# Entry
Amino acid sequence: MKRLAIVGAGGHGRVIADAAQCSGWQAIDFYDDAWPGTGPHAGPWPIAGDTSLLFAQFDNYQGVIVGIGNNPTRAAVQQRLIDAGASLASVVHPAAVVSRNAQLGAGCAVFAQAVVNVGARIGDGAILNTGCIIEHDCLIEDFVHIGPNAGLGGGVHIGQQSWVGIGASINHLIHIGRNSIIGSGATVIRDIPDAMVAVGTPARARPA
Ligand SMILES: CC(C)(COP(=O)(O)OP(=O)(O)OC[C@H]1O[C@@H](n2cnc3c(N)ncnc32)[C@H](O)[C@@H]1OP(=O)(O)O)[C@@H](O)C(=O)NCCC(=O)NCCS
# Structure
């Protein structure tokens, strides 16, 4: 039986579980450091314990993924899992379209209706949320979150741990630095440096 462990039993983790259930994972257990305060279940899936319990039984799982939406926290937890010897999995909803000529890193979550086009490179631990479009030749670095329905034109480069909000549009060839936030609905027509928050149409940036 193909078993998946998800760390983080919040809403994002449950969307991963739902996608995993549709894509060949036969058993799904959650682990969450708020357990037992979380209660016994995350929706229809059991919460088996906290991460110390998971660390003691990696052999029971074919894959582990971090289901935490916050980018720095997801990065830190994924690193702890790697250091402890976990085998990371990416979960891709069957209704997502990922080009055979794109690259996807370890521990990524790709949700329904997301499109990743030819030549795109996606780093480790990225979230490609529902309905987002990653056009050809984009470079998405590690632990980035592309929000639902956000659209990235060809050749866009997003730096580590940046977050593109729901429905944002980013013109082709734009570079967004590391640890920046693009607000919901923003239209980005110029490069955005590291550690900025950019909102509006056209997007204007201020330090985070
Ligand atoms: C950009 C964002 C992070 C800013 O959050 P914040 O720092 O709490 O900002 P505030 O709500 O205090 O707003 C600060 C100012 O920015 C404006 N603003 C905030 N978000 C904005 C947006 N998306 N578009 C335009 N203006 C925005 C506010 O109107 C406010 O303007 P004012 O100072 O003139 O009144 C947040 O609004 C956002 O867009 N997050 C993305 C949400 C998302 O994608 N969720 C889906 C998750 S799956």
